[in-house]
Fold this protein.
Amino acid sequence: MSKKISLYGLTLAIALIFSYLEFLIPFNFGFPGIKLGLCNIIVVYLLYKHGIKHAVSINLLRIILSGILFGNVYGIIYSLFGAIFSIIAMFLLKKVKFLSIIGVSVSGAVFNNLGQLTAAALMLSTPQIFAYLPILAISGIVSGTLIGIAAKLIMNIVK
Amino acid sequence: MFKKGDLVLIIILFSLSVLGLFALHSFDNKGAAVYISINNKEYAKYSLYEDREIEINNNGYNKINIKNGKVSVEKADCRDKICVNHKEISKTSETIICLPHKLVIEIK
């Protein structure tokens, strides 16, 4: 039990540090919503190593805490939509044999974008916002690949 | 490190996105009017071709600039400044959104 508590504490702390890093170094490509999503390294890693329950708990706590610390209410709603879409996609595709952790992470990233756009379209009742999907999906493919590689490297190192 | 399926997935998603971008661009038309809405309600509408500055103090402060058929947000007191950093818009159905202020600027 105490081992479990310390593991949750440790992974949550790392996820929050990643959130803080991204808050400190905002990337701006002229489009809102394009970012690296460092925290997803933890989510992908946890999903593979400790299962969906651990991954979801840490991600939910991370979203709420980092929203309160560095963001706002809207940010929390966006992130929640993205996280729910992404974890469902990753959980299902993880069962598919021909995809490795990298392919799963890429789909997670793209579904994260889709979820956030859905949140924005609902909140603003502006479906035109889905016009952002192609450009966000490309950024998601790139960041998802990098995050998948990082998560795989961590899997090899942390036993 | 990569499995074959990963590469197939990446290539498919990438091609779809690029196709989507091309499709959006080919339908892009020069817009005519600038619609501003706040809290999902229409707030104001202006011609895209009359230069003007619009200051809005509703949920927060935004200064919108219409110049040479292009719209941008010049100043805002929101926290993330996404609207200010957004590139200029000029084509139909392009939007600039300031989420903290629930402000949508759309070209029609």
Observations:
- The radius of gyration of chain B is 18 Å.
- The CA atoms of residues 12 and 43 of chain B lie 41 Å apart.
